[in-house]
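Hi Y.,

Following your request, here is the sequence exactly as I used it, all 375 residues.
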Amino acid sequence: MLEGKRFPDQPDVAFYLRMLAGGGAERVIVNLMRDFVQRGVNVDLVLNIVEGPYLQQVPDSVRIVPLGTPRLLSGLPKLAGYLRRERPTALFAALHYNAEIALWAKRLAGVATRVVVSERNTLSIHAQHQTDNERWSPLLARLFYPWADGIVAISQGVARDLSQVTGIPRARIQVIYNPVETLTVQQKAREPLEHPWFAGGEPPVILGVGRLNAQKDFPTLLRAFAQVRAVRPCRLIILGQGPERQTLEALIVELGLQDDVAIPGFVSNPYAYMGRAAVFVLSSAWEGFGNVIVEAMAVGTPVVSTNCQSGPAEILDKGKYGALVPVGDSDEMAQAILRVLSGQVNRVDSAWLEQFSLATISQQYLNILGVAAQT
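Below is the corresponding structure, written out as tokens. Let me know if you'd prefer a different format.
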């Protein structure tokens, strides 16, 4: 990683983020960068601040360009300056308000760079649950997304919602699923894991993964787990960090689950847990896609998911490849988990997973970015 060093060649693709935080969008971008550079694509990663747990996973051939300010708005003129100086063929931005800043930067720079934005959440639902500036994201998308040269939604449901919220014609929005680097996920799932709950003869482990916030609705998972544990011995691990940790810990005590629930925080290799879990549960109230569902499917772990907007039903083929339960329904979730633990498992067709493969998705992104692979 060469911060600020200028290559003689014009960048093919620049990815723009505030920082390389530990979320699903950032993980997707890291995977895309890896595949792009293997295809001979010249990649820049433009960050407001060079921080985040995924930094070590950025390929060495990717140039990191620091804007040197934590605030998105104050980074706007610096991003415009980068575009004027380097003139990448395409600029990709994946999160609010990175997307709006990227669109404004192109206008200020007066360059021909193709700007592609990606909507990663069911915007109408997401905005209703926000108390910060995110609540304005539907209005800003309506105002500024029409400026984009390309608009990506990560599921059919997100695309429909985005069109309804913004008035942008559905035909202008291209659906590209999040990629999963299947072989890497499977290899990481086999890496050693020193956790006593996965030792031989221990009760089965139920796994949840995600940011500890209202969207992921881990209280419903905890209540479902309490019902399951009342029927048979089992344990629950929730991987992630976030603002609701103390609330969840209080609920664990209230339900008397202290001995059988662990929340270790962010872990660099969640797949080692995923590959050893008896069932993976996504309890979200809403989603844009649900990367973790595909990852669980890739390592052969049965899935129970809420049928939330949007993504899980598409990934699981309307319940063919995993159980779908109503949002917020701990009773139905508990019953679905018990069915899996009793051996009622739907095996996933490998051909179905191919549509989520990194190679397939990377090519779709290169197409919308207007960039040709060199190798």
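Residues 1-7 have pLDDT under 50 and may be disordered.

Thanks again,
Q.
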